[in-house]
Amino acid sequence: GWITEQMFTDIVAISQMTPGPIGINSATYIGYVVTGSVLGSIVTTVTVMLPSFLLVLYASHFIRRHKESAIIKGVFAGLRPVVIGLIASAALLLMNRQNFPDNTWSILIGVASFLLVYFTKIHPIFIICLAGVAGLVIY
């Protein structure tokens, strides 16, 4: 009950456009909205970030020590399709009328962006900016 569905949609949109992970950006925004202070934003940001930071720090140390292991190589080979599936799942979850009032244009922008990334050497960040401008002009 801290935020409405519309606020959540706005958080996702803003977090996708700003640098950094969506969870940290969302925590910063929600911390500010709930407490009404910058201190609330800082506390929520640090508490969301710290556990992941510590786990990644330990994991990177472990992987660096065992990077030539066949098991580690196999784990990373197995994770590639999982990551693609998670990204596709998140995209499908966010495809609703509130985020995409006219699916035709949204699908067209998405397909065009994918084709540009896949078949050209244009930097993906530039394509994201182009897609944002196209969405701004269309919607």
Tag the structure with descriptive keywords.
single chain, 3 domains, 139 residues, mainly alpha, 6 helices
Measured distance between first and last alpha carbons: 29 Å
The structural domain count equals: 3
Please state the CA-atom Rg, rounded to the nearest Å: 19 Å
The largest sheet, given as strand count, sense and whether it forms a barrel, is: none
Helix/strand/pairing category: mainly alpha
What does this structure look like?
This protein has 139 residues and is mainly α. The chain folds into three domains: 1-65, no CATH class; 67-99; 100-139. It is built from six helices and no strands. It has helices at residues 5-17, 22-35, 38-65, 70-94, 103-119, 124-138. α1 (5-17) crosses α2, α2 packs antiparallel against α3 (38-65) and α5 packs antiparallel against α6 (124-138). 6% of the residues are buried.
What's this model, at a glance?
By secondary structure, the protein is mostly helical. It is built from six helices and no strands. It has helices at residues 5-17, 22-35, 38-65, 70-94, 103-119, 124-138.
Lay out the secondary structure.
Layout: H1 5-17, H2 22-35, H3 38-65, H4 70-94, H5 103-119, H6 124-138
Helix pairs in contact: 1-2, 2-3, 5-6
